[in-house]
Structure formats: C-alpha cells, structure tokens
Hints:
Elements: H1 3-8, H2 14-21, H3 25-42, E1 46-49, E2 51-56, H4 82-95, E3 99-104, H5 110-126, E4 132-136, H6 142-151, E5 153-157, H7 165-171, H8 180-193, E6 196-199, E7 202-203, H9 210-222, E8 227-232, H10 251-268, E9 273-276, H11 278-283, H12 287-293, E10 298-299, H13 306-309, H14 325-338, E11 342-343, H15 352-358
Parallel strand pairs: 1-10, 1-11, 2-3, 3-4, 4-5, 5-6, 6-8, 7-8, 8-9
The structure holds iron/sulfur cluster.
Amino acid sequence: xxxxxxxxxxxxxxxxxxxxxxxxxxEQQLLFEKAKAVKEKHxxxxxxxxxxxxxxxxxxxxxxxxxxxxxxxxxxRYTVTDEEVMQIARIIMENHYGSMVIQTGECTERxxxxxxxxxxxxxxxxxxxxxxxxxxxxxxSQEVYREWFDAGAHRYLLRIEASNKExxxxxxxxxxxxxxxxxxxxxxxxxxxxxxxxTGVMIGVPFQTLENLAEDLLFFKEKDIDMIxxxxxxxxxxxxxxxxxxxxxxxxxxxxxxxNMIAVLRILMKDVNIAASTAMQTLHPQGREKAIExxxxxxxxxxxxxxxxxNYKLYENKPSVNEDAEETKNQxxxxxxxxxxxxxxxxWGDSLHFKNRTKE
Length: 360
Ligand code: SF4
C-alpha cells in the first residue's frame, strides 16, 4: 500500500482507513497536509466557540471508563442553579460566543427533563434567540428529544464511544441501561426530529484496534453524522477500566493517533463540524491547536462555575479546572489566532454537512 495512492482516492475501504490511521513521520505529514487542504477548501479556517456548562454530574449509568459514573461515591454530586445558568448565558452574550452546550450525566426522571426544557426556554428568551443551544444529556425518550427541540435546542451530542458492538460491551455493563442498539437508535431518532446530530468515540481505549477506529469512521459516514467530538482516552483512577492501564498505548501514541483520527475524518467527511476536545489538551499543551490545524473547527470553552469543576472530572488531569471564564477566553483566542485561524464570533457555527444534507 502507498499513502499517496490511498489519499488520491475518494472512497476508502476499512483497510485503507486503518493504514491512514497508522501513519507516522513523513506519511503522517502527507496525511495532515491533505486534511488541511480539504478543510480549507470545504469549510475554511473559522473556529466556532460553544460556551460549555457541565450542568449536573448526577448520572444513572455506570460506564466503565467514566469518573462520574453512578457507583463512584467519591464524587460530590451537584446541579448548577438556574441563576448560574443564566449568568453563563450572560457571559456567552458578552463574549460573543454564539452558542451554549448544556452537558449532563444521564437522568431520565421527569422533573429533570422538564427542568432542562425550562432552561432552554429561559436562555432563548434572555438572548432573544441569539444563543444557539447544543444538548448533551444522554439517551432520552423520543418525546423528550422532541420537547427539547421544540423548546429551541437544535444540536445534540450523543457519543457512541465505540461503534463496534463487542468493544462497546467491554466498556459498559451488560444490562438494558447500557444497550448499544438503544444508543444507536437514539441517534436515528434525533436525526428524524430535525437536530444536527453529533457523536464520537474514545481513541486509544483498552481492547481497541486500528480496525475498530476505522469502523468508527465508517459508522459516522453511514449514519450521516453532522458533528463529531472525539478525543484520546484518559484514565480515571476511580473506574473499573483503570485496571487495564498497563495495556494502553503511551500518552504520546494516543495523542498522535487522535490527530490522525481527526485528519482522516476531515478527509472522509469534508463538511462536518469536528470538535477540538479538551482531552487533546490534557495530553499536549497545544493539543487543541494541533487538532484545529489538522481538521477540527469547534472549541468548547468551559464556563461551568469553578466550585463545581472538580466534580465533573470524566477523566484525570482535566485542564481548565482552575481557570476562570475570562482567562479561558483570552488564552483560547490568542492560541487560535496564533495558528492563523479566525473566530466566528456571534455565529451559531452550524454544521455545513447538516445544511447540505437537508437542503431541498
Ligand atoms: S459516560 Fe455519560 S452516561 Fe456514562 S457514566 Fe459517564 S456521564 Fe454517565
């Protein structure tokens, strides 16, 4: 196989995708150059900000990799108050971010889902519909997804984490609450309702092969996903998966593999939104900038009030735990301008892929 021949193609087999994902040194540079060119041609060099609020760390689930899993009793549980959410909406308006992401653990109780509806309405009313809302609140019924959409949320992130069923089963308890098919169906339902749909996976997780990652890329393509958030797997010590830490690629390898995943995804799905995840920055001080350079175009500055951040650690060493909103914004702006990108202030930064797939 020759990387130049593979990159010259428009369609990629699983084997070719796995080959690209393994790129190193000169081959990796060729891969990155191609991804940069595709990005510039199809979506340009604008980066969009989404102000992130980690609304609640209460979760009914027990994913083996996650620091806020229900059975982790070391975590102090919290829910951000309505006043604090509105304060974040104010910060988003003042900083011209254009969008808010409300992320929570997975709770399906009616008082919780109704409260989210209420918050969506309040943020929309307060901002005169200027703030675009993305939700990341896990698996919910079709009715709840519809209610949130009708209230004004228009993008939804639900990471599949591993598109291969056997791998998924190794990362989650074997019960109906953690059912692969249910999760996959939720993605279909979100799309039917009219959301811009996002998903994603962990990269470098125990038991995962390059072929699994190639399958993930094909899964995104087959599901016609609009937005992708993926990042390197980082261990959280209070989780069952931490026992597998000896089988992991080292941090540098996981970081490089994540860059390759972003670059290959950009080449495969030219017009989707791709997030430069915080996990990238955990493994490399310029992790997010590097992700942007090879294909990402979305950054989610964390605006969660400081007092809660220690308790929303999905993994260890999460950055920005001690930075306040203003500091985060200034830092990010400087970093993005330094790599010759611009910031799409006051814009929702919707997925071009969504626009293309829904136009008449
Ligand atoms: S990954 Fe999400 S659903 Fe799973 S335990 Fe963590 S917060 Fe809950």
